Amino acid sequence: MIDMNEMMSGLSGLRPVFHSEADFQHALAWEIHKKYPDCSMRLEIKPPYLRKRIYLDIWCVRGDTIIAIELKYKTRGFVANVNGEVFGLLDQSAQDVGRYDFVKDIQRLEKIVSEGSNIMGYAIFLTNDSAYWTPSRSNQTVDAGFRIHEGRILTGDLGWSLGASEGTMRGREGRLRVKDAYNMNWKDYSEISKKSYGRFRYLLIEVERGHVIK
């Protein structure tokens, strides 16, 4: 078992911000390896028992346990100098698509975990965009089904609302099915500036057999 909240807490002190999702992926995998040197790490791996070409961000085998990890790192435009290193973050909009993709990560992990009693799954969403953790003022948004704001219970058969454009749904037309129920509980990760978008928070979803809402 790996305490992923502990890993994120430790990582935040070393790397409060990342250049990209790949940077985040590599840093987290390295910290897990340092703390658990007996953990065999693989990045961008396709589980052999899945028919589709699905690649997981991190695949860790520790003893008889497999830990599958999916990551999302979504940013708003921001430039900062952290310990002498300059970070120029992209301004990534399309939060509706970002939410869909994260819920799809959870659906994928549920499928993987169901394949064996020794598999654990973690979906992690790290961002400096408060639109992800803040509830919408309207429940009529096209991505209402995929919202991951603080306090929401995510579960069930989820799809786009009426009015979603073809451009938004392109490549993401399918409905998503979340079998278990998950409480969206955001945690602070770092604050590199008091300016807008200087605060980072993360959402950690633990996927396991016999899941109980936490």
Span between termini: 17 Å
Oligomer: single chain
**Please, how many domains?**
1
Backbone structural class: alpha+beta
Strand order of the largest sheet: 1-2-3-6-10-9
Q: Give the beta-strand count.
A: 10
- Please trace the helix and strand order, writing H or E for each element: HHEEEEEHEEHEEE
The low-confidence runs, each spanning 5 or more residues with pLDDT under 50, are none
How much helix, percentage-wise, in residues?
10-25%
Note the overall shape.
Answer: globular
Biggest sheet layout: 6 strands, mixed
Detailed description of the structure:
By secondary structure, this protein is an alpha+beta fold. It has one domain (4-207). The chain is built from 4 helices and 10 strands; from the N terminus they run ααβββββαββαβββ. A 6-stranded mixed beta sheet has the order 1-2-3-6-10-9, sandwiched between helices. Strands 4-5 form a two-stranded antiparallel ribbon. Helix 1 (4-14) packs across helix 2 (21-35). The protein starts with a helix and ends in a 7-residue tail after the last strand. The model has no long low-confidence stretch (mean pLDDT 91).
Tell me the layout of helices and strands.
Elements lengths: L3 H11 L6 H15 L4 E6 L10 E7 L2 E10 L3 E5 L2 E5 L5 H19 L5 E9 L25 E6 L7 H4 L6 E8 L2 E6 L7 E9 L7
Parallel strand pairs: 3-6
Antiparallel strand pairs: 1-2, 2-3, 4-5, 6-10, 7-8, 9-10
Helix pairs in contact: 1-2
Short summary:
The protein is of the alpha+beta class and 214 residues long. It has four helices and ten strands, in the order ααβββββαββαβββ. It has one domain (4-207).
